[in-house]
């Protein structure tokens, strides 16, 4: 998963989450959606966006890694 210097808005992250909904484990989708309701800081928004970016095209190993990242982010709250 690569990172970039672009700050992603809450709306962009919510759209990316909705775009990937059918590819994410149900519980993880719900936890991530709940996280976005808590007005997360910019770093969390960026991290969530990059975990979701092209999630549907990722290998199974890469998806597992991204799932762990999303789990860690959602468990912080």
Notes on the structure:
α1 (10-20) runs antiparallel to α2 and α3 (42-52) packs antiparallel against α4 (60-76). The protein has one domain (10-76). It contains four helices and no strands. The chain is mostly helical. The model has no long low-confidence stretch (mean pLDDT 94). It has helices spanning 10-20, 26-36, 42-52, 60-76. The chain is globular and about 30 Å long. 65% of the residues lie in helices and 0% in strands.
Gyration radius, to the nearest Å?
11 Å
Domain module count: 1
Number of helices: 4
Query: How much of the sequence is in beta strands?
Result: under 5%
Number of strands: 0
- Helix proportion range: 55-70%
For the sheet with most strands, the description reads:
none
**Structural class designation:** mainly alpha
Order of H and E elements = HHHH
**Global mean pLDDT:** 94
Q: Which regions have little confidence, pLDDT < 50, spanning 5+ residues?
A: none
Question: What is the CA-CA span between the terminal residues?
Answer: 22 Å
Shape: globular
Protein name: Group-specific protein
Tags for this model:
77 residues; 4 helices; 0% strand
Annotate the secondary structure layout.
Blueprint: H1 10-20, H2 26-36, H3 42-52, H4 60-76
Protein name: Group-specific protein
């Amino acid at each position: 998963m690569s990172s970039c210097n672009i700050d992603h808005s809450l709306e962009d992250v919510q759209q990316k989450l909705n775009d990937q909904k059918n590819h994410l484990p149900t519980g993880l989708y719900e936890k991530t959606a709940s996280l976005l309701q808590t007005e997360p800081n910019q770093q969390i928004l960026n991290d969530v966006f990059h975990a979701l970016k092209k999630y549907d095209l990722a290998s199974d190993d890469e998806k597992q890694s991204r799932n762990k990242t999303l789990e860690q982010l959602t468990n912080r709250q």
